[in-house]
Design brief:
Elements: E1 5-7, E2 12-16, H1 22-27, H2 35-43, H3 45-51, E3 55-63, E4 66-81, E5 93-104, E6 111-115, E7 118-121, H4 122-137, E8 146-151, H5 156-161, E9 165-166, E10 182-187
Parallel strand pairs: 1-6, 5-8
Antiparallel strand pairs: 2-3, 3-4, 4-5, 6-7, 8-10, 9-10
């Protein structure tokens, strides 16, 4: 059995992309096959911020007075329309925060960290941080009831085992450039949904 890679110190903090050193952004590497995630934070994230299409947050591990980029996530407001079964002309929607991008640097992929009795991959700690940030901080400023994303094929199981659900048959996600990927959602609050 392969031994797990572990780190002893993880001091996870969130900063805005505008606060991050450009050389650190340039060095971010999501790994082979995920070059688009590596390129996004240096070529598109600032454009999305300016246009209002997404806000990128960098997750760092503070090491003394320096830091490493662990990963990043890009968030955007959205709605998840659904068919309420009443056949009305209006379409109800669940206010959601869309995770447009979520990536972990290759240095921290498949690396575990133990806090108290819980040992988890750093990617899970980062996803938990993101979920907690939206549920406890961001939701004080905008209305949202759930997280929503399009999972790349290789990450579908990761999201599923970490609390994301597949769309229910009556849910009708808005068109996205990522429609080729599986749409998933994770409730942050209890709310009524029709059966089905």
């Amino acid at each position: 059995m392969k031994e797990r890679k572990k780190i002893n110190n993880l001091n996870l903090k969130r900063i805005f992309i505008s606060e991050c050193d450009k050389s650190k952004l340039d060095a971010f590497n999501a790994g082979p096959g995920f070059e688009n995630f590596s390129e996004y934070i240096i070529s598109e994230a600032f454009d999305d911020l300016k246009s209002g299409d997404g806000s990128t947050h960098i997750l760092i591990n503070e090491v003394g007075t320096d830091y490493d980029i662990v990963g990043y996530f890009t968030l955007s407001c959205n709605a998840l329309p659904y068919d309420d079964g009443y056949g009305s002309d209006s379409i109800p929607g669940i206010p959601v925060v869309e995770i447009k991008m979520f990536a972990i640097d290759i240095k921290y992929q498949d690396v575990f960290y133990q806090f108290e009795d819980e040992i988890l991959p750093i990617s899970v700690w980062c996803l938990d941080y993101l979920s907690s940030y939206v549920a406890n901080t961001l939701s004080q400023h905008i209305s949202c009831k759930a997280l929503y994303l399009h999972a790349v094929d290789s990450a579908e199981e990761f999201y599923y085992i970490n609390g994301f659900n597949y769309m229910k048959p009556f849910m009708k996600p808005l068109y996205s450039v990522d429609d080729d990927f599986k749409a998933m959602w994770k409730p942050l609050k209890k709310f009524f949904l029709p059966e089905g």
